[in-house]
Amino acid sequence: MKHAKIGLVTTLALCLGLSVTADARELKFSTPTPEPHIMTKSAHHLADAFAQQETGDTIKVFPVNKLGNVPTVLSLLQSGAIEFAIVPVGDLANRDPAFLAWFLPYQFETLEEAGKAANSEPAREMLARLDAQGIKGLGYVFPGQRHLLSTQPVTSVAQISGLKVRAFPNDIFNSWWRELGAAPTALPLPEIMPSLVTGVIDAVDVDIDIVAGLQMHKQAQHLVLTNHMAFPAAILVSARWWNSLSAEERSRVEGMVVETQNWAIATQTEGEAAALDRLVADGAKIDKIDDPALRAAGETVRNVFLDRDPLIRRFYEANQN
């Protein structure tokens, strides 16, 4: 009876024009963010595109670091235990300083400008460097520019001084906040909300998507649109899995990643204003700082990091032109 059922399914699939592959697999895709965030949405978008292929392989998305923290996920990619991941470039910068180029303050005015930089030769070279680590970098996803979420109103650079700011744990974020007189604090994502409540931190360096996704504005009402940095993540695959693919299969995957990258940039660019409106309707207070001291601090930090790696200056000059 069991074999009869299998035969019936196979016959039905063939009648419908579907391809049946005996060794079809469920591939694993890790993301660090909750479901509403563009990083996880992008993973699902790529999974949907993948499901249209005739190989029979499917992708299962594991959001919010369910497969482990970023170092664990990178190790899983290297070993081939998982096939896909989206990893913040800030984490990759701790492995290769060239990725710090993305965080030079105020080099991009808009998300659209940052998205165009993803196709620049230096940006592609950063991803290519990951080959030596057993990881294949295929593209970028952009949640949006970075801002400041605070428990109290912040309307001047002077008010930033002394704030305990949860910042991404790498050199350039720490330098940026110290230049403004703040105290950067490294905290895992799950500890941010309780730390805002208890006063361990006063503010968070954020993108708009993560504020909405984690409902951070319920604990810190004031979103200050500083627009100080881009914050890309990289779409990565396991080199072991990649090397098992044919040239034709690799080309198809690359095409799907490019389409996903473009879709994510367009989605974020069009949806950011609406996301802000939803946050305001839900009680968030939107503030802005019009103070030349922000740009001056950005220039100081840029000058410190421009020559940390030759690729940083090349990236900056390529995208300024």
Low-confidence stretches: 1-22
The major sheet is characterized as: 6 strands, mixed
Gross morphology is globular
Q: How confident overall, as mean pLDDT?
A: 91
Q: What's the helix count?
A: 13
Structural class of the helix and strand makeup? Answer: alpha/beta
Q: What are the key terms here?
A:
321 residues; six-stranded mixed β-sheet; 13 helices; 46% helix; disordered N terminus
Summarize the entry for a quick read:
The chain is α/β, with parallel strands linked by helices.
Structure description:
With 321 residues, the chain is an alpha/beta fold. The chain contains 13 helices and eleven strands. The chain has helices at 2-15, 38-51, 70-79, 89-93, 111-117, 121-129, 171-179, 192-198, 208-214, 239-243, 247-281, 292-305, 310-320; strands spanning 26-30, 58-62, 84-88, 135-141, 147-150, 164-166, 183-185, 203-206, 222-224, 233-238, 285-287. Strands 7-6-8-5-9-11 form a six-stranded mixed beta sheet. Strand 6, helix 7 (171-179) and strand 7 (183-185) form a beta-alpha-beta unit. Helix 2 packs antiparallel against helix 11 (247-281). The longest helix has 35 residues, at 247-281. The radius of gyration is 21 Å and the shape is globular. The N and C termini lie far apart (68 Å).
